[in-house]
Amino acid sequence: MIDEDDMKHLGRCVELATRALETGNPPFGSVLVDEHGDARFEDHNHTVGGDDTQHPEFAIARWAAANMTPDERAAATVYTSGEHCPMCAAAHGWVGLGRIVYASSSEQLAAWLDDMHAPPPPVAMLPIHTVVPGVPVEGPFPVMAEAVRELHRRYQDSQT
Ligand code: ZN
User: How far is CA 140 from the centre of its chain?
Assistant: First the structure.
């Protein structure tokens, strides 16, 4: 189940994805929220410099490993504008983070990129559950996903 607080955090992810786009990066943004509902860390994609591993969910996993106990990590939720890629899902699983809520799915992104005649990513767009079967996952959410699709359209337009 997803509530108003969840939607608020997803809205923040879309804002962060917008900021990524405005700084030349692909539009992805994520927020780490602890068991008390407090946002502890947030980031957006930073791949424009040429390091394609600079995803916000990977940054969150590293931050959580450095700053939270295992119990705190397990009780935390990661909100993200787009479903974790396999690299980030693995990092999430390795550091023992809890629930994931995403606005748009990898399946949706693959279809959008195809529609936009964009090259597919070099890494398979597997669902989170294929990589980390034990993590509770919720998404996608249609209104938020539509906003994310529009950001990807703007990004692809900026690349041509
Ligand atoms: Zn990733």
Answer: 11
